[in-house]
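Good morning C.,

I know you're traveling, so I'll keep this short. The sequence:
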Amino acid sequence: MATVRASDAEREAVVARLRTAAGEGRLSLDELAERLDRAFAAVTRAELERLATDLPVEPTELAARRFVVGIMGGGTHRGRWRLARRSTVVNVMGGADLDLRDAVVEAAESEIRVFSLMGGSDITVPPGVHVELGGFALMGGNDLRLEDAPEPPPGAPVVRVRAYTIMGGTDVVVRRARP
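The C-alpha cells, ready to paste straight into the viewer:
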C-alpha cells in the first residue's frame, strides 16, 4: 500500500482540530504544544491522523474561568482548569496564583488582564507557548522570566498578560511541567 503525503490543507485541518480540543479542555497547553510540533513535522497523512485519533470530531461546550478576584485574600488555580479567551484578575490587598501548565485554553490567543492595588499575581506558563507581558506598574513591578525556555513552535498558543499594578506586582514565568 502506498504512503500518501500530507498536504498543507490537511495539516491546517489537524491543527484546527487540536486547537478546538484544547479549547474544550481535552488537551493541556503542554499536550497541545507537543502535538502541534508533530503536526507541522508530519510528512504523511497517517502521521497526521495519529495525532487526533483520541479526539472527537464534534466540539462540546464547557465553561471557562473568566474572573479571578482576590480582595484581602487570594485565589489559586492549579491542575486541570480552563482559561477563557479573555480573563480578568482583580487583586486588592490580595493576590492570585494561576498555573497554566495543566490548564486548557479556549482559543489560540488568550488575554489575561490583571488589575492589582497593593497586591499581585503569579502566573506560570509552560514552555511551547508564546508569552507577552504589557501594562504598567506604579510603586511596584511586572516581570516576565523565560528561564531558558525554547522558542515556541509556529502555531503555538499565545498568552498575552496585561498587568496594571499600583503598589504590587505581577510575575509571569515560563517553567517546565512539575516532575
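Safe travels,
E.
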